[in-house]
Design brief:
Blueprint (H helix, E strand, L loop, with lengths): L21 E4 L2 E4 L7 E6 L6 H19 L2 E7 L3 H15 L7 E3 L4 H5 L14 E6 L5 E7 L7 H13 L17 E2 L16 E2 L3
Length: 207
């Protein structure tokens, strides 16, 4: 049985403070903590000029106004250079007629990738997974998702996640499976309940 090194840094988890950093982006130098006060979706992609990543960026660029309506910023990252990022943004504009409105971080030293657990020391190459961190206005990670390199993310689910996190942020309600704005929500039970208790039918209209 393989033993776990207790001294190894653990991966980021829900409830952790998102590590701050300062990095160059396609929109100038950016510090993560400058997004405090609003929601942030921080996401990585394995490499520029790849089909799945390009499809995601086109979809995210088109959905950017929907995130903006939620007062939620978008921030991308890959290990490629800033020059590669700029060339890729131009190619997306020329091929698809879409302007990418959000900044994209360069991470050639892998510092951000390692800090966020997108890479580990045993990684076979510098390509990050498709990691997404949903960060609240206080800088706390409220949800995270990881996709493999060969599967694109669902932009609709990213938007739903932000909406659900915002709706349940005060702790007064939970959002059930497949919840959408306007659907009923769940009221958390006042006490722990089990079989035989009124543990499910505690809903209220979300109007």
């Amino acid at each position: 049985m393989e033993t776990i090194d207790a001294n190894m840094p653990r991966s980021l988890r829900i409830g952790d403070i998102a590590p701050n950093f300062i990095a160059r982006t396609t929109q100038g130098e950016i510090a993560l903590d400058q997004f405090r006060g609003r929601w942030l979706v921080f996401f990585s992609h394995p490499a520029d000029f790849t089909p799945v990543c390009t499809s995601e960026f086109v979809a995210l660029a088109k959905a950017a106004p929907c995130f903006e309506e939620l007062d939620c910023a978008l921030l991308g990252l890959s290990v490629d250079s800033l020059y590669s990022h700029v060339a890729w943004m131009r190619a997306i504009r020329d091929l698809f007629g879409v302007e990418v409105p959000f900044p994209v971080i360069e991470d050639p030293s892998l510092a951000v990738g390692y800090a966020y657990g997108m890479l580990d020391e045993q990684a076979s190459d510098a390509s990050t997974v498709r990691a997404t961190y949903f960060i609240d206005p206080e800088g706390i990670i409220r949800a995270l998702t990881w996709y493999p390199m060969n599967v694109g993310r669902s932009i609709d689910e990213m938007l739903r996640m932000v909406r659900a996190l915002q709706r349940s942020a005060d702790g007064e309600v939970y959002t059930p499976a497949d919840w959408q704005p306007g659907d009923d929500v769940l009221v958390p039970p006042a006490l722990p309940v089990g079989p035989g208790g009124d543990w499910f039918h505690q809903t209220k209209a979300d109007r």
